[in-house]
Amino acid sequence: MMIFDMWVSVGKTKILGPLICDVGTAAELKKIFHGGTRSPNSRYVLLQPITKRRDKMPQTEEDRLKQTLRNLEVKTSVLEVPQADRDQMTNKAMEMMNMFDDSTRKLTWGPVKTSDPGCRKVVGEIKETPTEYELVMQDFNDHLVNAGMNLSHPTCFGLIPTGGGTYPAALGAFIPATLASYSGFPRKVTTIVEMENKLIEWVAGLFGYPAGHAGNITSGASLSSLTAMAVARDSMGLKAADFHRCVVYCSEFTHYSVLRGLRAVGLREAVLRTIPLDQLFKMTTTALEKQIKEDKEAGLVPFLVVATVGTTLTGTVDPLNDIADVCERHQLWLHVDAAYGGFFALCDEMKPLFAGVERSDSILVNPHKGLFTPVGVSVLVVKDGKKLQQCCSMEQTPSCFAECQLFSDEHVSPSELSFEISRPFRGAQMWLPLNVFGVGVFRTALQEKLLLTRYFYGKLKETGDFELPLEPELSVVVFRATAPPGVDINDFNQQLLEGLNSDGKIFMTPAVLSNQFYLRVCVLAFRTHVEHVDLCFSVIQEKRLRLRESLRSEA
Ligand SMILES: Cc1ncc(COP(=O)(O)O)c(C=O)c1O
Predict the structure, then answer these.
(1) Which GO MF terms are attached to this record (predicted)?
(2) Is 302 a residue whose pLDDT tops 60?
(3) Which residues neighbour 78 within 8 Å (Cβ) at sequence distance 6 or greater?
């Protein structure tokens, strides 16, 4: 065993005391650190020249412990990346991000890859020892930049285009991560909490909620929904013994995240009524009210209606005012899932569709869809904020956690308004772009998406080659190609969809309406412009004609 007095600088100069090493390691250390040079094995540790050498063992138990601790500190000092290396890492990351941006732009005329079949084989194991940063970034590059599905690609028309944050929004994810920002409770981070509250207030204002509301920023609509279900359950005073008699009303097109949320909050046994849709694919209010009356007569406990602003499949908006009337008459909680469609409320021409939204009890909307933030940002607002607080917080902090008392009289803590305690500063991903760009450009971008949708719909209609079961309300077009004589239209369109997605120029998903197979285009990526919609249209026409041709030659 040898002891060295060493002057070690880790990041900013810091003197560490003696190090205990076995001889081999000590010699190696000397070689590695002498003269302040950096070794490949100690990339982030800078050492000043060794000043003194002692061969004595430490005298006390405490000395020994301290020296062991110092050794551990030196070993773990690689976690504190010095500025020069940070710059190198950042530059490499920037290179990769720029390549991604470039490929996203260039891919306008190239493939949107939907899968990376080699991925499982290629991705390495997690190892005990470090891997060179360059190699790790190469992996990222291969698997993130050059492979996988990019749901924010300009020619992604499938699902709901999501994520693909604008650059300031991406910085909104990065900066709080570097600052270790924590928005769980306001004691030390009042400004962050205030910023998030301001964003929630802005969203609440968009939907006409009066003062007294409260909300939280969650990771997605699924978690926002789950929270809303829990608040509705508690506010209506439901107890576990009654869950099997409780009734939830949604439509055939309600997103399944709502149903999963219900299960998660204990309402798996609740009765779920799927209210039929009208010809415009909106919840039929007369059927809703009739069902509620029947359920009441049968001794059940109707308590919750879920309406959707922008159904995933057709982009339609349920008749909010009519549904709110029914809820009012029967004292039911009205929750609005505006995950996809909510931010279209920014566009004046869409306002009539939102009439009545202010009468709902809770609403969620996804900035990671309509505001083009990176994935992981959803806003839930509950009109009566106290109900959210009562649902999520404890009446009293358990005495063993008394020291962690999070709450203050001045500020309600975000952790009292959500089921999370540690939570990242997700709001920064909204705050930065909304301030850097201003709200106006988001309104304009959403107007562009609405117009592109109408443009695409018009082009399909003009050909006479497609069935179009509904006019788009927001930014979804549902359609199917007419089939050649003797060919089943569902089969024809299924084959067409396979063909459309086969070379990855565009990406689309289907919609099954009344057991009929349709194709569906959703325009929401902020980079999608008229050239991409034109490309989509021409690919559809080309593949449709080719499929007809091949079926004819087979016949
Ligand atoms: C209407 C609707 N609700 C909820 C969700 C689920 O959203 P998230 O992925 O943010 O949980 C989606 C996703 O597309 C949706 O369209």
Answers:
(1) carboxy-lyase activity; pyridoxal phosphate binding
(2) yes
(3) 42, 43, 44, 45, 130
From 229, 255, 314, 377, mutation site for ligand 1 pocket: most ligand atoms within 8 A of C-beta:
255
Domain of 535, CATH number, reads 3.90.1150.10
Q: Indicate the average pLDDT of the chain.
A: 87
Looking at the fold, whether 356 and 463 belong to one and the same domain comes out as no
**pTM metric for this prediction:** 0.89
For Cα atoms 351, 209, 170, give the angle at the middle one, nearest 5 degrees: 80
Is there a single domain that holds both residue 231 and residue 356? Answer: yes
Q: What is the mean pLDDT of residues 220-235?
A: 98
Task: Report the number of distinct structural domains present in the chain.
Answer: 4
Q: In the prediction, which pLDDT does 120 show?
A: 57
C-beta 318 within 6 A of ligand 1: no
Q: Domain check: are 496 and 516 in the same one? A: yes
Ligand 1 neighbour 387 (Cβ under 6 A):
no
Is residue 433, in this structure, part of any structural domain at all?
no
Ligand 1, from 312, 318, 378: best to mutate by most atoms within 8 Å of Cβ?
312
Spatial contact of 333 and 304, defined as CB atoms under 8 Å apart: yes
Q: How far apart are CA 98 and CA 273, in angstroms?
A: 49
Say yes or no: 63 and 102 in one domain: no
By residue range, what is the domain housing residue 121?
83-173
Which pLDDT value is given to residue 122?
A: 63
337 lines ligand 1 (CB under 6 A): yes
Ligand 1, atom 5, lies closest to the CA of 221
